[in-house]
């Protein structure tokens, strides 16, 4: 594991602090960056997210989907959690906390915005960072590849309808064109570009050229992630400083959602008798969020300084340390799972790391 992955929380924490400090010190600069948008999509953020996502998308080999039949239970688990449980539990918790528990502390319009941001997080299953979580739990990288590939295919068609439905339930009008554009921009195009690049570089199937390019792009991916965090917290710096209690209020249901979803998925994985190297990544995929997409859509739909955007940014703040704690827990409980079936149930297809 590289230096960046090992100290991921430290780097992201430093980027968050830097963003808040810079956003407070030079708000004019961030205002200029915020104004650089087309069709309600911020151009700078889009470029940075592309830098971050593209190398991850290059690692996805959609031809491996045919191998899912060799062990479908792990895939079924993550699909059920991602598409039948998590979006709806997130919407419910958002409503419960901001329309009931915190109703006297938050203005109704602001509460609806926070709920909207939480929903966007809940409807966006993890695509990029899950490879890191899988590696840290010694997961089956090939099976993780299948899970991510299938989730990405489903997300292309399911993200917009589910998000629109749940946002509509909270009485928020959704511009479908912007929502669909964001899915195309941050999921479809990177997926297609990554697949084309992988096919062009990996004709010999020895992964050497692919791995060389991935190694060269990795620093840019790191720069993309940290720069995105700096900008997101820079955009929200004044709001965060003026309303630190808002961060706490948003973080509470997000923390409950994350740990509860993991507990449900982990319990189900154990009952399904999955091997740990498939169970752990399956639960990580079902628990974590594609926060890059959620942030982008929130900004597109509601604006850079909206409560929805703030909620998704708090999702970034919460996710990394929480997921690292779940990685620790998964590794400590490896003995709960039957490891004897690992070798026979591992998908044999190899992809470039």
Automatic annotation (TrEMBL):
<dbReference type="Pfam" id="PF01758">
    <property type="entry name" value="SBF"/>
</dbReference>
<feature type="transmembrane region" description="Helical">
    <location>
        <begin position="217"/>
        <end position="235"/>
    </location>
</feature>
<dbReference type="InterPro" id="IPR038770">
    <property type="entry name" value="Na+/solute_symporter_sf"/>
</dbReference>
<keyword id="KW-1003">Cell membrane</keyword>
<keyword id="KW-1133">Transmembrane helix</keyword>
<feature type="transmembrane region" description="Helical">
    <location>
        <begin position="75"/>
        <end position="102"/>
    </location>
</feature>
<feature type="transmembrane region" description="Helical">
    <location>
        <begin position="308"/>
        <end position="330"/>
    </location>
</feature>
<feature type="transmembrane region" description="Helical">
    <location>
        <begin position="179"/>
        <end position="196"/>
    </location>
</feature>
<feature type="transmembrane region" description="Helical">
    <location>
        <begin position="38"/>
        <end position="54"/>
    </location>
</feature>
<feature type="transmembrane region" description="Helical">
    <location>
        <begin position="114"/>
        <end position="133"/>
    </location>
</feature>
<dbReference type="InterPro" id="IPR002657">
    <property type="entry name" value="BilAc:Na_symport/Acr3"/>
</dbReference>
<feature type="transmembrane region" description="Helical">
    <location>
        <begin position="247"/>
        <end position="269"/>
    </location>
</feature>
<feature type="transmembrane region" description="Helical">
    <location>
        <begin position="145"/>
        <end position="167"/>
    </location>
</feature>
<comment type="similarity">
    <text>Belongs to the arsenical resistance-3 (ACR3) (TC 2.A.59) family.</text>
</comment>
<keyword id="KW-0813">Transport</keyword>
<feature type="transmembrane region" description="Helical">
    <location>
        <begin position="7"/>
        <end position="26"/>
    </location>
</feature>
<dbReference type="InterPro" id="IPR004706">
    <property type="entry name" value="Arsenical-R_Acr3"/>
</dbReference>
<feature type="transmembrane region" description="Helical">
    <location>
        <begin position="281"/>
        <end position="302"/>
    </location>
</feature>
<keyword id="KW-0472">Membrane</keyword>
<keyword id="KW-0812">Transmembrane</keyword>
<protein>
    <submittedName>
        <fullName>Arsenical-resistance protein</fullName>
    </submittedName>
</protein>
């Amino acid at each position: 594991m590289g230096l960046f992955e090992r100290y991921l929380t430290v780097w992201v924490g430093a980027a968050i602090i830097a963003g808040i400090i810079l956003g407070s010190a030079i708000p004019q600069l961030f205002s200029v960056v915020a104004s650089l948008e087309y069709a309600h999509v911020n151009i700078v953020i889009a470029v940075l997210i592309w830098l971050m996502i593209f190398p991850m998308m290059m690692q996805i080999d959609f031809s491996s989907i045919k191998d899912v039949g060799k062990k479908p239970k792990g895939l079924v688990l993550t699909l059920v959690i991602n598409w039948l449980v998590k979006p709806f539990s997130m919407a419910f918790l958002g409503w419960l906390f901001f329309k009931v528990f915190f109703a006297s502390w938050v203005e109704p319009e602001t509460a609806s915005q926070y709920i909207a941001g939480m929903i966007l997080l809940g409807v966006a299953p993890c695509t990029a960072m899950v490879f890191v979580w899988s590696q840290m739990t010694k997961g089956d990288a090939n099976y993780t590849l299948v899970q991510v590939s299938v989730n990405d295919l489903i997300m292309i068609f399911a993200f917009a309808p589910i998000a629109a439905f749940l946002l509509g339930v909270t009485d928020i009008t959704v511009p479908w064109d912007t929502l669909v554009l964001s899915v195309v921009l941050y999921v479809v195009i990177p997926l297609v570009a990554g697949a084309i690049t992988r096919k062009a570089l990996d004709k010999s199937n020895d992964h050497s050229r692919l791995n060389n390019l991935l190694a060269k792009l990795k620093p840019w991916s790191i720069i993309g992630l940290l720069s995105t965090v700096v900008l997101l917290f820079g955009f929200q710096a004044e709001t965060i400083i003026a309303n630190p209690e808002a961060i706490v209020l948003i973080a509470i249901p997000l923390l409950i959602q994350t740990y509860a979803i993991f507990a449900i998925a982990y319990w189900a994985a154990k009952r399904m008798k999955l091997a740990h190297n498939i169970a752990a990544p399956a639960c990580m995929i079902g628990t974590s969020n594609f926060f890059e997409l959620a942030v982008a859509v929130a900004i597109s739909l509601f604006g850079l300084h909206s409560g929805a955007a703030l909620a998704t940014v708090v999702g970034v703040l919460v996710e990394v340390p929480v997921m690292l704690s779940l990685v620790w827990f998964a590794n400590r409980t490896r003995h709960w799972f039957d490891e004897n079936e690992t070798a026979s149930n591992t998908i044999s297809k190899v992809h470039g790391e």
